[in-house]
Amino acid sequence: MRPDAAELFMTHRPRLVRLAYRMLGSIAEAEDMAQEAWLRWQLADHGAVANPSAYLNRTVTRLCLDAMKSARARHEDYVGPWLPEPIVEPEEDGMRLDELTLTLMLALERLSPLERAAFLLHDVFDQPLAEIALTLDRDPAAVRQLAARARKHVRAAQPRYPVQREEGGRIARAFFDASASGDITSLRSLLAANVTIQADGGGKVTAFRNPIVGQERVVRLYERLARKFATNPPVFIEAVWIDGLPGYISLDRDNVLQTTAFAIENGVATAIYITRNPDKLGAVAADQLQPRSM
Fold it and tell me: Cα separation of 2 and 13, whole Å?
């Protein structure tokens, strides 16, 4: 192995983890992909690798494409809605440098594995078509078509006006206060008419098994919950940004840790994403247990 091979790999590792996470929606699996790429990098003929960055991108992408075959099968058998593992900002390794939000990641889930790879590599990670063609074993024209089809699907999920942090934080906190107390007037003012809630419990904890659609259904749901658990309200822990969306971390009425993220347009929430599956909240839980500096 070339003397600087380890240092060179570590330079690229944050980007490789970021790519794998965007492909798979799981930090744990992304870390596994990066580790497998490291093992393969150690065995590579480094003298024959003219472009280490391209080589490592190609390795991780192909590993992810293989992993996505089993991942799709797992998603089909998943209990209730599936959401990507939440990434709470800020991330020291720059996970959010690519500007993808949780909403856009869900749009990527509707693409084929090749469309997803072509879009991410071309539009998000700025790889040249010739290199992507080599990675995907397709000619450049086919890659261009794959990326174009993916772009068309993803464009509909792109927010027209990015929400400002101050506004996003205000709406997230106001939603928590109103939903915890059952204040239906305030809740209505925060929600779009066609708002949708998706809650990921993965069958491990209680969660809504089906999406909740419509302002009135959401309002009535939280009004009932507030009455039922009046003596055991949820606990607000921290306002955060989750995969590019405003939100918060809380302990729900049954003492389950959860993250809640909001897609916001025109000052109201159009979608609410709740992650309760403890398998996806390990990093969040670990962060909450760390002592805070005074």
Answer: 17
Among the listed residues 75, 111, 106, 109, the one whose alpha carbon sits nearest the alpha carbon of residue 272 = 106
**Residue 34 Cα distances to 19, 261, 264, 283, angstroms:** 10, 27, 33, 18
Final residue in a domain of this structure, among 123, 155, 187: 155
Q: Is the predicted pLDDT of residue 137 greater than 50, yes or no?
A: yes
Task: Give the dihedral sign, CA 257/72/24/115.
Answer: negative
Do both 147 and 190 map to the same domain?
A: no
**pLDDT tens-digit readout, 194-216:** 999 999 999 999 898 899 999 99
Number of domains in the chain: 2
Domain enclosing residue 135, as ranges: 5-155
Residues 193 and 221 in one domain: yes
pTM of the model: 0.88
Determine contact, residues 218/194, Cβ cutoff 8 Å: no
CATH of the domain at 36: 1.20.140.160
In this structure, how many other beta carbons lie within 10 angstroms of the beta carbon of residue 230? 12
101 in Cβ contact with 159 (< 8 Å): yes
> Could you tell me how many helices (H) and strands (E) the chain has, helices first?
11, 6
Helical (H) or strand (E) element with 236:
strand 235-242
Any idea what DSSP says for residue 46? G
Q: What is the pLDDT of residues 14-64, one digit of tens each?
A: 999 999 999 999 999 999 999 999 999 999 998 889 899 999 999 999 999
Question: Measuring CA to CA, how many Å separate 264 from each of 242, 250, 258?
Answer: 13, 20, 19
**Where does a domain end: 155, 176, 211?**
155
Q: How many residues does the chain have?
A: 294
CATH code of 182's domain: 3.10.450.50
